[in-house]
Every structure is written in structure tokens, then in C-alpha cells.
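Field log, afternoon session.

UNIT: design team B
ACTIVITY: writing a sequence onto a fixed backbone
BACKBONE:
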């Protein structure tokens, strides 16, 4: 490996750290946001207002999910580049720990799972309040 490649990997490693911090912050924000929304939703007594709130949260949830996914893809790209250096600690750690695969892959699915949940609940309350 030449000196310029080493410098490039140092830059990539720094960017990876930044991106992983951003990913962590976005996932944490999403979890707090979804939790606060669920508490607020439980206090709404009007089904029509509940449907409007659920539709809004579903859209916001999807948008945050897309932001999380994009950041995850950037982290994955940086990690793939770092793994080309067999001396890098991440390369060794990743080889040594195989379970549960890449934890980021699991975390990135959370906003999409909850978006689907919000869609289902929106449909339920819509049918309950507008179809009957």
C-alpha cells in the first residue's frame, strides 16, 4: 500500500466516524420522535384527527427513514473502502464477529417497519371513522 492510499484511508476513516455519528443521531432522533408521537396519539379522542395525525407521522416517518437509509449507505461505502486495508482494526473486528451480521442493517429497518405500522393504523382508523 502506498503512502497516498494510507492518507486516503485515514480521510475515509474520519469521514466514516462522522457518518456513523450522524447515523446514530438520526436513529436516536427517530426513536424519540416516534415514541413522543405515540404518546401524543394515545391522547387523541377524535378518530378523524387521529387519521390526519397518523397520515402526517407516516409521511414524516418515511422521510426520516430515507434520510437514515442514505446515511447508512454512505457508512457502508466508507466501511467497504476501509476493509480493503487488511491491517485496519475494523477489518479484523469484522472478520472476528459474525453475529448479528451488520447491526446497521438491522437498525436501518426500524423506521420502515414503523412507517408500515403507521400506515396500517392509519388505514384502520380511516375505515373506522370514514367508511362506517
Amino acid at each position: 500500500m502506498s503512502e497516498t492510499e494510507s492518507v486516503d484511508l485515514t480521510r475515509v476513516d474520519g469521514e466514516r466516524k462522522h457518518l456513523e455519528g450522524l447515523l446514530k443521531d438520526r436513529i436516536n432522533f427517530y426513536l424519540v420522535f416516534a415514541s413522543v408521537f405515540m404518546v401524543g396519539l394515545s391522547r387523541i379522542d377524535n378518530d378523524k384527527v387521529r387519521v390526519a395525525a397518523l397520515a402526517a407521522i407516516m409521511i414524516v416517518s418515511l422521510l426520516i427513514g430515507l434520510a437514515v437509509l442514505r446515511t447508512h449507505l454512505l457508512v457502508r461505502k466508507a466501511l467497504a473502502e476501509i476493509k480493503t486495508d487488511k491491517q485496519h482494526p475494523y477489518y479484523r473486528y469484522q472478520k472476528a464477529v459474525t453475529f448479528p451480521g451488520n447491526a446497521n442493517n438491522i437498525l436501518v429497518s426500524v423506521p420502515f417497519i414503523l412507517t408500515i405500522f403507521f400506515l396500517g393504523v392509519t388505514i384502520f382508523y380511516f375505515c373506522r371513522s370514514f367508511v362506517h
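LOG NOTE: The CA atoms of residues 19 and 75 lie 6 Å apart.
NEXT ACTIVITY: expression trials, pending approval
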